[in-house]
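Internal ticket - ligand job 339, zinc ion:
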Amino acid sequence: MPNFVSKTLDDPTYWRSIILFGRNVASYKFALARSLAEVANVRNDLIKMEDLAEPFARHLCQHIKEVPVQSTSQSSKFLEACRQFNAQQITETDLRDTTVRLGFNNVIDAFHIVNGDEVPTRFFLDERKTLGGIRLTDACHDLLLGDEGQTLVEEIQSRWRLVETAWELNINRNLISVQHDTSSHILFVDQGNRRVDVTSARDALNGYQKGHCFFCFRPISLTQANLLPDVDHFFPHVLGSYLSHTNFNGVWNLTLSCMECNRGEAGKFAKLPSLKLLERLHTRNEFLITSHHPLRETLIRQTGNKLQDRIGFLQFQHTEAKGILIHEWEPEQRGPELF
Ligand SMILES: [Zn+2]
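stdout (structure tokens):
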């Protein structure tokens, strides 16, 4: 069995996952991140909301001037105030007051949430109720004032521009393939990344799984409607928007999953399967290859000629995916381990 390892996550990775990943229904997250980078220059732990309001509103006003659409929702009183300020209809004081009152709805609470859960590092603590501000943590100072600080700020800006491009063109974010070059940290767009229909893979995959969910071993059935499995992307297909060099629709990445595991209450969704599950995927792919299954050539083409190449391929995907998805997932076992 190969010794797969899980990428060790650090604060820059958490920060990048906040900026990169997310629903992006509005640009507040980017404005807040830019503002944090500005106020972190002053080593003054508690940032009052009225002091945060100035850079926060300024960044949004600047962006609104160039791209009027800054949210996918129809109306926002706060964004309207930014427009009025740009049109010199309200004063800077009016704008600051409106920002303190309405500008931070949700964004402070949601900032640390990536892929459904909080990242383990907090870059600020919410002390609005007790002290009327947020407290920047040491992690925030170290990150934004450190060697990588300037690069991280530029990344916020490029991601913001990318999301604006999507809004301007009125296209779904998932249809924009974004490549994040991990060495140069350049992001670029490649349109036309579409989800390919994979349901025809059901029969082939069910033979190996012997009528059981790949993840929890609960019974599944291709003929009983209530036990019909989902064709699941082991590495969530949303990754295609970030790592466009990998074909996540390839059969190497497909399993049959019960509905609970795929999208139930404690389901996988866009989380990353654990190393134990990665080993299970590796074992499955190797079994199909060594048993001269009809999918053998396809799997070899997709993952590598030699065993070591294929191990390296899966390890690489796991490492890359972890830096984006952050949270690992493993379900409770619902039956004997069959494969
Ligand atoms: Zn399951």
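Auto-summary: The CA atoms of residues 228 and 253 lie 19 Å apart. Residues 11-177 form one domain.
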